Amino acid sequence: MGDRRNGGTTTRPAREGWRSEGGQYEYRMLTIGRTTSRSDARRLLTDEAEYGRWELARTRLYAGGERRVWLRRKIIRVRSTL
Questions:
Q1: Are strands 25-32 and 3-5 parallel, antiparallel or unpaired?
Q2: 19, 48, 59, 79 - which has most CB atoms within 10 Å?
């Protein structure tokens, strides 16, 4: 489903139906485990923002301590000049 990262963090693509709805953003969901420290989570999100050009769209904290984070980035379409 997604790759495993340090501290019980997983990543997977968000739903695929956004294109059919005319979405201008690409979405990605990260699941941060309860054992991940706050500084490690912040570092992970900072790296995603700096190098992957992702921005924070939504966060959700669950009762067990698990945190889900939705990231988004604008889709840049290149038009042919030929």
A1: unpaired
A2: 48
DSSP-derived secondary structure for the chain: --EEETTTEEEEE--GGGTTTT--EEEEEEEE-TTS-HHHHHHHHHHHHHHH--EEEEEEE-TTS-EEEEEEEE--PPPP--
Residue-wise pLDDT tens digits, 29-76: 999 999 999 999 999 999 999 999 999 999 999 999 999 999 999 988
Identify the CA nearest to 69 among candidates 56, 54, 82.
56
- Tokens representing 30 are 């990260």
The structural domains of the chain, with segments of one domain joined by +, span 3-74
